[in-house]
C-alpha cells in the first residue's frame, strides 16, 4: 500500500490512525477493534464493510 495514502487514512468512526497488515491485506483500528478490508490495493473504508476483532492477542 502507498505510504502516503496510509499516512492520511484514519478510521472513519473514531478518526484514529490505522495499522496496516500486509497478509491478508487489511487496515486495523485498535481503538474500535475493527478491520477494514483492502481489495485489489484499494482500502474499503465503509463501516458496514468492517469486521469486528473478536480475539486480540
TrEMBL record:
SUPFAM superfamilies reported in the protein's UniProt record: Trm112p-like
Gene3D superfamilies reported in the protein's UniProt record: 2.20.25.10
Top-level lineage group: Bacteria
Listed GO CC annotations: cytosol
InterPro entries tied to this protein: Trm112-like
Family classification: Belongs to the UPF0434 family.
UniProt protein name: UPF0434 protein EVA68_05790
Organism annotation: OM182 bacterium
Amino acid at each position: 500500500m502507498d505510504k502516503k495514502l496510509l499516512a492520511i487514512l484514519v478510521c472513519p468512526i473514531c478518526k484514529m490512525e490505522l495499522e496496516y497488515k500486509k497478509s491478508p491485506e487489511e487496515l486495523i483500528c485498535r481503538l474500535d477493534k475493527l478491520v477494514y478490508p483492502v481489495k485489489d490495493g484499494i482500502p474499503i473504508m465503509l463501516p458496514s464493510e468492517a469486521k469486528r476483532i473478536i480475539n486480540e492477542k
